[in-house]
Structure formats: structure tokens, C-alpha cells
Recover the amino acids of this structure.
């Protein structure tokens, strides 16, 4: 087609030069006028038709004479990639990651350990022993599957429901409990709400409550990796509700235009607190937005830990080797309440929750796979559930007994050098405690 167009343009150009020479040589003004019209016609129609294509910057398109609007129903929904059926059988043997038994068992144990910790910490909040908690019920597969496909050097930006990523990276149970209890061992020194974890050692940036603030930050960190020629990527977790925030647009657009090696991992669990997806957006989920940003995109069954593992591993390869972002939408379901401040029975039925808990749970699917392989049985299940619960309860009791951080901690770690007005406040508190110390439970706090 290009050859024919080039040939046509060349012939037309020769004809035009011939007509131009005739116009110059002609004495008869009528012939000159006629030749001029021929030239105008040539340039305005034939050449234009042969070379006409939109030159507008920022789009890949062609002209059309049909007045057709694009309707969202025109396109089929983006397919959901999976590896296993719900009974644990592999759909296509070529897609089985063929992970060793030891690794699969570890994935299962860490998914169930997270589940056990959630149950104990949720009950502790209900008993008034901690102020707040968020469970991960039903989303364990998205955490462990994605974390297992990455390396510790790959930086993580979480939203607030990604504790399983830290579990996989061997963040100690003591640190989970200490953070929730805000005791003297808490890395954050008691300055954050419960479940707002963070650990430089484990490559996990500290959680912040406002939605989607981590997304532009993740793009910036990934761009820094790119500039430093690191062979690692950044992964940024967020929910489908957070995708409605302006920071989500900014983060993905920055990553796309800068070709930043970041994986945007959307946990689409069906609800943004009490807002269902039907009220959150009208398009085909979050994955449909990827091509609009120019981002390579895939949708995966978030309850299939192997499918999540496969797509995250491939996403990292794309990020590192091709130096560009990837969007993953993991379709899953939030079985628990949004947080201890929420009662989900007010906006969804118990039958709906029971279906996902009993029929399509990521832990059940992986356990079925292991049993099909003869890697797991009822005896191992019973022994593991008992030992893991005992372990969590032991650490839980120890964390609860520990003292709170020293009161001086509230004045430091904000400014590099403490300014005079903060020094004055610290001195004022010390004098106040010297005078009225008997009215405060000072023995519950660590000494300086």
C-alpha cells in the first residue's frame, strides 16, 4: 500500500511539473488559466487523497467519514487469567508454574498464618485491647502470590490491606503485634494507627491512611530506579475505590510517560468500604483504563495464587527488561468487614459473603491443589493450625504486656534538628510531669 501510494505521488508530481511548464510557456491566457486549474485540482484532491492521514499529536488514528460514537457495550470484557479451577485442578498444564513442594507449602502456611493473625487481632479490637484493625479475609492469594514472584529488593508501596506481603517477606509477628499495640518495640514508635506497617529492612514503605497517595510516590521511586539503572521494580498496591482518586490518574500517567518500571496492582475486591463497584465506575473494571494510559495490562483471578504469581513474575520481567509500567487487576472479594469501624451487613447480604467464603476462597483452592499432589492432608492441616495459633497467641500476649514508647518520642523524628518551639514544648511537658506526675500512668511508658 505504501509503495503504491509513493508511486502515485511520484507520477502526480511529474504530471504537475509538466502542467506547470505548459502554463509558463503558453501564450494564450485561456490555456494558462486552464492549466492552473488542473494544477490546483491535482494538489487539492489527488495528492491529498494519496497522503491524507491525521497529523494531530497524541493519537494513533485515521480519518473516517462515518459519524460513529464509541459505545462501551461494543467491546467484550477483558478476560480473567487463571491457572486453577476452584477444586485445585490445573486448567492448562503449560500454565502451572511448577513450583517446588517446599515453596507451595510455605505459601499455604503463610496465607493461613495471616488468616489466624487476623482472627486474633480482630477479636482483640472487639475486646477493646487495640483501637483499630483491618482483616485480609479472602484476599490472601493476591498478597502471597504477588510477593512470592518478587525479590526483597523490589520496593513495595501498599494501601493498607497488604499485610500478607510482609508475612511473605518474613516481617516478624512480634513487629506486627508491636505496631498494633504501639509498644516500645514498634518501628513507628507509636505514631501511627494500627495496621499502618512499614519496614525499610523488608522494602515496605510505611502505610499512610489517605487513599492513593502512594501511587505518584511509587511512580517517582520507579523512575529513580530507572535513572540508577537498577534491575528491580516497584510494586504499588491499591483498591478499585482508590482508583477513583486523582492521585491514581497522576501516578499512572506519570509512570506511562516516564516509562517507569512500576507494577500497579489493583485489588478489586468488590467494595470500596460500603460502595459497590456498580456505583464506583461504569466501565469494565480498572484494567480497561490501562490501554488509555498506554500501560500494558492484564486481569487475573485474585483467588488463584498461581495465576497471581505468574502475572506478577511476567510483569516484573516487562518492567525490568523493557523499562515500562504494567497494570494488574486482581479480581477477588473482601470477605471481612472493611475495618473494625465498619458493619458490612448494612450493605450486603450474609448469603453473598458466605458464597465467597465457602465456594471460592483462595486458601481452599490452594489446599485442594496440595491435596491433589499428596503434599498435604488432614493431619498436617490440624497440626499446622494448632501450632500457628499458639505461636500467634504467644507473641500477642508478649506484645500486650510491653510498655509504651517513651513520651519523649513524640517530639523527635519530625525535624532533622529540633526547632526552639518544639524544645519549649518538650521542656513544658517535663515540668508538668514533675509537678503532676502522680496523676499519669508513667510506669506504663518506657524511660528515656
Amino acid at each position: 500500500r505504501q509503495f503504491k501510494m509513493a508511486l502515485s505521488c511520484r507520477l502526480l508530481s511529474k504530471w504537475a511539473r509538466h502542467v506547470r511548464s505548459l502554463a509558463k510557456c503558453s501564450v494564450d491566457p485561456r490555456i494558462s488559466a486552464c492549466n492552473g486549474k488542473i494544477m490546483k485540482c491535482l494538489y487539492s484532491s489527488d495528492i491529498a487523497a494519496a497522503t491524507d492521514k491525521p497529523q494531530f499529536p497524541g493519537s494513533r488514528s485515521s480519518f473516517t467519514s462515518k459519524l460513529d460514537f464509541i459505545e462501551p457495550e461494543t467491546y467484550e470484557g477483558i478476560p480473567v487469567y487463571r491457572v486453577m479451577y476452584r477444586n485445585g485442578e490445573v486448567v492448562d498444564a503449560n500454565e502451572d508454574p511448577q513450583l517446588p513442594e517446599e515453596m507451595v507449602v510455605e505459601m499455604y502456611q503463610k496465607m493461613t498464618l495471616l488468616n489466624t493473625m487476623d482472627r486474633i487481632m480482630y477479636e482483640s479490637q472487639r475486646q477493646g485491647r487495640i483501637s483499630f484493625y483491618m482483616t485480609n479475609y479472602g484476599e490472601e492469594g493476591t498478597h502471597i502470590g504477588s510477593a512470592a514472584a518478587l525479590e526483597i529488593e523490589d520496593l513495595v508501596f501498599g494501601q493498607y490491606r497488604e499485610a500478607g506481603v510482609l508475612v511473605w517477606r518474613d516481617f516478624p509477628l512480634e513487629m506486627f503485634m508491636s505496631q498494633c499495640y504501639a509498644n516500645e518495640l514498634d518501628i513507628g514508635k507509636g505514631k501511627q494507627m494500627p495496621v499502618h506497617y512499614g519496614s525499610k529492612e523488608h522494602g515496605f514503605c510505611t502505610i499512610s491512611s489517605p487513599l492513593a497517595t502512594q501511587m505518584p510516590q511509587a511512580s517517582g521511586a520507579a523512575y529513580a530506579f530507572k535513572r540508577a539503572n537498577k534491575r528491580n521494580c516497584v510494586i504499588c498496591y491499591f483498591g478499585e475505590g482508590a482508583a477513583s482518586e486523582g492521585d491514581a490518574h497522576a501516578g499512572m500517567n506519570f509512570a506511562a510517560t516516564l516509562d517507569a518500571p512500576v507494577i500497579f496492582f489493583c485489588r478489586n475486591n468488590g467494595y470500596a468500604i460500603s460502595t459497590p463497584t456498580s456505583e464506583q465506575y461504569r466501565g469494565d473494571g480498572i484494567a480497561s483504563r490501562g490501554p488509555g494510559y498506554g500501560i500494558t495490562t492484564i486481569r487475573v483471578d485474585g483467588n488463584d495464587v498461581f495465576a497471581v504469581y505468574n502475572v506478577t513474575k511476567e510483569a516484573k520481567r516487562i518492567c525490568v527488561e523493557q523499562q515500562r509500567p504494567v497494570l494488574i487487576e486482581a479480581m477477588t472479594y473482601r470477605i471481612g468487614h472493611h475495618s473494625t469501624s465498619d458493619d458490612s451487613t448494612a450493605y450486603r447480604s450474609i448469603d453473598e459473603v458466605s458464597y465467597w467464603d465457602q465456594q471460592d476462597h483462595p486458601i481452599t483452592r490452594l489446599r485442594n491443589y496440595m491435596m491433589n499432589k499428596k503434599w498435604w492432608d488432614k493431619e498436617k492441616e490440624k497440626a499446622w493450625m494448632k501450632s500457628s495459633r499458639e505461636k500467634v497467641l504467644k507473641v500477642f500476649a508478649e506484645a500486650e504486656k510491653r510498655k509504651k514508647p517513651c513520651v519523649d518520642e513524640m517530639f523527635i523524628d519530625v525535624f532533622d534538628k529540633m526547632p526552639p518551639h518544639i524544645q519549649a514544648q518538650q521542656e513544658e511537658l517535663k515540668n508538668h510531669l514533675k509537678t503532676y506526675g502522680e496523676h499519669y500512668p508513667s510506669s506504663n511508658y518506657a524511660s528515656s
In short: Residues 1-9, 22-27 have pLDDT under 50 and may be disordered. The radius of gyration is 31 Å. The CA atoms of residues 118 and 135 lie 5 Å apart. The chain has 15 helices and eight strands.
